[in-house]
Design brief:
alpha/beta, 287 residues
């Protein structure tokens, strides 16, 4: 690939012309500025002040590969290998979902409703560890456990815990058959389980379908609540009296999930909306 020069301002024009073929101009510019910030440490102001800034051959190769991957609609977070969640820098790769802003609202809800200094917390289906780590960061005396069915995801979560110097117990466990790997009682149980139905695939973007792990995303049309039944069972078995359960949900099934929790015997069941007014979380407590 031949470029007109190694001058950053010239290369930005080349990259922009490529990216705007599939991305809106503002998004293409944002991607370029984020790549430059992460690789070169140059803000937009720095770039404006250093108009003659030139990059090395190895840096040029890196940018070429990054732009190529963006043109294949690979998420920027996977290209960079990291993202930010609730103020925490986190490693991410294709073994884990990219944490969503809506899930930060789940953290807010849990912190608002639970004032214990040292609660015992378990995160079911922890992925990158984003929920478990955010709760541990904000409740430093809490004892936090995270489980996941994917060893690759757990490695990411453990890397994140080590990088952040946060003590969380991550372990391999199948949420659908968790009897052998969850013991003891907890004050808070939280889960963001797979809840996207197969019929929703047609409305999803390529960057999600092609790159994010389907194991952490999809459930069948026949049984969209397949993970919420075992979660309810685990809550009744492993929450302390009056302990709290929090789950993220498919907005289409908020009422169904709430009814399921009622039927299973949980109390104080509530549906919570996100900032967009969509049903996004259900909370309940153990009698």
């Amino acid at each position: 690939m031949q470029y007109p020069s190694n001058k950053l301002s010239d290369l930005k024009v080349v990259w922009f012309n490529k990216l705007q073929k599939i991305y809106p101009p503002a998004e293409a510019k944002q991607f370029i500025n984020l790549l430059i910030l992460n690789k070169l440490g140059l803000s937009r102001t720095d770039q404006a002040l250093q108009i003659d800034y030139r990059i090395s051959e190895s840096e040029m190769v890196w940018f070429h590969q990054a732009v190529k991957q963006l043109l294949q609609e690979k998420p920027l977070q996977y290209i960079l290998g990291h993202t930010t969640f609730y103020g925490l820098p986190l490693e991410v790769n294709e073994a884990v979902l990219i944490p969503r802003p809506e899930t930060e609202e789940l953290i807010e809800l849990i912190l608002k409703e639970n004032k214990q200094k040292a609660p015992r917390i378990i995160d079911l289906g922890t992925g990158s560890g984003c929920i478990a780590l955010a709760l541990k960061k904000n409740l430093p005396q809490a004892k936090v456990k995270g489980i996941d069915i994917s060893q690759e995801a757990l490695q990411v979560a453990q890397n994140n815990a080590k990088a952040l110097s946060l003590e969380v117990d991550f372990s391999l466990c199948n949420l659908l058959d968790a009897k052998s790997c969850i013991r003891g009682e907890y004050d808070i149980m939280v889960s963001n389980p797979p809840y996207v139905t197969e019929s929703d695939r047609k409305s999803m973007q390529k960057n999600v379908l092609d790159y994010e792990p389907g194991l952490a995303l999809f459930v069948t049309n026949v049984d969209p609540l397949q993970f919420y039944r075992p979660i309810a069972h685990l809550a009744l078995k492993h929450l302390r009296q009056h302990g709290k359960l929090y789950v993220e949900i498919n907005e289409k099934y908020g009422t169904n999930c709430a009814e399921l929790f009622h039927q299973k015997g949980l109390k104080d069941v509530q549906i919570h909306q996100d900032i967009h007014g969509k049903q996004r979380f259900v909370s309940a407590s153990k009698p």
